[in-house]
Known about the structure:
Elements: H1 3-6, E1 16-19, E2 30-33, E3 47-51, H2 61-73, E4 77-82, H3 91-100, E5 104-108, H4 113-148, H5 152-163, E6 167-171, E7 176-180, H6 196-203, H7 205-210, E8 216-218, E9 232-239, E10 242-250, H8 258-297, H9 305-314, E11 321-328, H10 337-356, E12 362-366, E13 369-375, H11 380-387, E14 393-396, E15 400-401, H12 402-416, E16 425-427, H13 428-437, H14 441-457, H15 462-473, H16 478-485, H17 489-503, H18 510-526
Parallel strand pairs: 2-3, 3-4, 4-5, 14-16
Antiparallel strand pairs: 1-5, 6-7, 6-10, 8-9, 9-10, 11-13, 11-14, 11-15, 12-13
Helix pairs in contact: 2-3, 4-5, 4-8, 5-8, 13-14, 14-18, 15-16, 15-17, 15-18, 16-17
Amino acid sequence: MRFDEALQLPPLNRGVVVSADAHLNQEISWVQVVDHPDIEAWVEKGHLLLSTGYSWPKTGAAAAVIIEKLAAKGVAGVVLAVPHFVEHFPAESIEAANQHGFPLIEVPWEVPFSEITQCVHRELLSQQSRSLERSDQIHRQLTEAAVSGDGLQDVAQVLGGVLDRSVQIYSIQGTLLADFIASPCGTHNPPFASSVFLALSAGGGIKVMDSQTRAVRWHPRPSRLATKTQSVVGSVVRSRTERLGYVLVAEGNPPLNEIDLRAIEHAATVAALQISHQRELSAQETRMGHALVASLIEGQFDAKPNTLERSRLAGWDDEIEYRLASILMDEPNPLSNEGFRRREALALALSRVIQIKGATPLISLSANQIHALLPEGFDFQWLWTEIAAKKAAMGVSQAHRGVEGMHMAGKEIMDLMAHVRPGRIHYFDEAIFPRVLAGDPKARKMFIDKLFGRVGTDKRSQHLLDTAMALADEGFNLQRAADRLNVHISTLRYRLGKLAEVTGLDLDTVEGRFRLQYGVRLYLAEQP
């Protein structure tokens, strides 16, 4: 208990403070009655000394020296019974006590020391009992927060509630993970200053916390990072030897006591359990997501109703068109330990960038490649710029839908990645035609399949193939092509639109018409 609290108790409330009345916040741990020379040998830090004044130095240097010795021992203060042996504390004792911030109290002689000792010790025991109850309450609530697994917000709320202080939990990078704002009450519950984490980092507070295993009290200096400064108590969130984050509490007045500090440390332990639990869940979800994407692009997905339902829960929809984006890292196979770490870091960065756009990160890892299924319309150029992998290369498939479509995207990427160059993004539909012109037989087959695959397998679309041949032979002269096909020119224009839709070519452009003409020649050359 503090000295000023003890002075409110009868019979100490009959005493008069004669020195250092601004320093009555010392903690009292025991009451000691000593009335013989060499008093300092019989007292310890936190003791409240009771004296009748029988052996107290009456005047001179000795009256000041005794104060200096008691203050050096950490004694909480002296209560002197007056005026039986001495009228008052000597002036030298009072002057020395004021210099050392050492409280001196005078009580009437008729106040029994036994009553003072009894009332203070009773209150000390009562406070200890209340402290144990509060400690048990804090332990129980924080343990419930740990068992519930509801998240860091629950930890911040529980800790803030039991301390009646504002609480913030940060990641190791300084990202705010959870917070609790206590009801304002003067200086008792000050709000957190803006950018308190940055202020602590700049002022050295975070470095001090990192070096300690106990809760640390820090008062940052005024800086440009925080318009207000305040006392902050923080504890590192650790999992074994790894730092995971920080629990910060805005202290205010009165200062937090030892039990409060232990509560902060306990909350940091619970936060570590929560973060580790969340990491494990995330890792499981990631592994499930990796397996899903890998099975889709490798053609091993079993399209049963229950597996399709699980895939939708994971974020993949068989009704939506996706493109497969694959990043080829500048890493030799097999990957080294450092290569594995760099791949994991790049995959994590890719996942975060995808989430910024509101998309689900459907990612899988394979050797030195990272694959991601992204909805049609996603800004791949922005993605490539954001991940800033200068020595890597990225390939992007055409848009496909459904299970078979994802396998087709996987085959496109497998073929495309053999031709990519570091530092660039390559699109399958842009890269295939130059390879056709270069005489790549595999690219030629894919090009023909892309143009006429649906036409060749659908008898109802045979007229489109005939139309493509006529247009190619007549140099896209619509009237001559219509006469050759013996159809009205309006019918030919309708077929031209359908042909553009089926082949994916813009037949209003010279490039599109050239590709169709070239494709027709290749198609005819492949026929028996």
